[in-house]
Amino acid sequence: MRILLVDDDAQGRAFLADYLNLLGHAVTSADCVDRAVQVYRQEEFDLVLSDISMPGATGIDLIGALRGGEDESGADIVLYTGHIDVQLAIQALRAGAYDYLTKPINLEELGAVLDRVEEHMGLRRENRRLTEHFDDEVRAVTQEKEEELEELRSMLSQQAEVDGIGIFSPAMWQVVHQAEQYHTDRSVPVLIQGETGVGKEIVAKIVHYGREHTTLPFVGINCAAISPNLFESELFGYEPGAFTGGANRGKRGKLDIAKGGSLFLDEIAEIPVELQAKLLRVIEENQFYRVGGLKKHETDIRIIAATNLDFEERMEKGLFRRDLFYRLNVGQIIIPPLRERREDIVPLAKMFLDASARKRGRAFADISDGAQKALLDYHWPGNVRELKNAMEWVTLMHDAPTLEPSHFVHLFAAPRSTAPGGQAVPEAAGRTRRKRPDNAEVLRVLEGCGGNKTHAARKLGISLRTLYYRLERMEQQEE
């Protein structure tokens, strides 16, 4: 706040000014009523904090001079004195003082008064804005309600997407089981890790929706798609006049929109470092400030985060806070890549093929043995997303009762080789696949690396996320 401090005691005035500055307020000092009135007429203040007893004019005289018959749209005035006099306090309040303190000033009591003044000034500004722009506000609120209705429709559509997913392998059943368990406790943050295209957002929706088909909001934000200078206002929202180019009435952030539901922070490892402490504070305190705001806003959200990056590497480079990682990693879900759950490949391909064929009126109803082998031999670097896109492309470009290798092999990202008979197949199908390490080898290599999981994963030829997943499965088997 902008505070005008009035006191003829230079030492006491300096002490109070330093304290208020430490709290983040902008303080202008005056040593008498005449000087205070002069400064007040030249600048705008939110609060006038003044001693009552001063040589010449008093703090009560100051109230009369500052009010001067004007309405109460000016600064709030708080008076203080070393005399505990009930009648004097009543006189000050009748003259127009917002509050009254006694010396020596209790700093905790002063802080409480400052909080009340901040809230009071915010309410007055909001009331003034509503009064001056009533018709605009009605239109804006109407538009906001329409947007909320559209968000609800979108949310229900997203829920339908969750209902239509296919789970075919034990590994993915375990992932879904974990997600449903986390759904039952909204206070637990959930961190989902996995390669690009494995379905992290779908799993996040299972954490949110569970089996109950909730109507609470599920709001997503891609941390990698928003520039750092816009990320804060997108997440927290901003107050009117917070920055040039902002909406005149301010804007709600994702934390506001997700209130009561879940906030999905996709690609969380990309969040700007300077904002990670603020996000940590939101998770721990369930409170936040909008950009340019002084008032704390309460929030009630479940945090679900996801990433395809190696957190350990990001933390070692100073790009991600360890305390935020540990706070997010209370509920952990690691989704194995599609190449490590081959039981899912053909059933998922069939599901995607059927859906795309129905959408485009194609005849595809089956997958030949050769096509199944080609699908299983490919390493799927783009995971489930790549498989779905491949089936979409097939139904767009071809129409046949049965899916054959010739319909899709040239879509694979890997270089192709020629199999006997001249048929093109993915190179992955013609080369020897690296043997998957068994549990004994995993433990042996991990021990040889002194427990360093990053080094062990490299030696084993698997991703760090896969190693975490394997170790977790081993612990469950021991139980």
Short descriptors:
479 residues, alpha/beta, Rossmann fold, Helicase, Ruva Protein, domain 3, 5-stranded parallel sheet, 20 helices, 18 strands, 14% strand
Q: How would you characterize the overall build of this protein?
A:
The chain starts with a strand and ends with a helix. It has 479 residues and is α/β, with parallel strands linked by helices. Helix 4 (86-95) links the parallel strand 4 and strand 5 (99-102). The strands form 6 sheets. It has a 5-stranded parallel β-sheet, with helices on both faces. It has 4 domains: 2-132, Response regulator (Rossmann fold), CATH 3.40.50.2300; 157-334, Rossmann fold (3-Layer(aba) Sandwich), CATH 3.40.50; 341-430, Helicase, Ruva Protein, domain 3; 439-478, Homeodomain-like (Arc Repressor Mutant, subunit A), CATH 1.10.10. It has 20 helices and 18 strands. Helix 7 packs across helix 8 (200-209) and helix 14 (345-360) runs parallel beside helix 16 (383-397). Mean pLDDT is 81; it is low at 413-433. 50% of the residues lie in helices and 14% in strands. The longest helix has 30 residues, at 134-163.
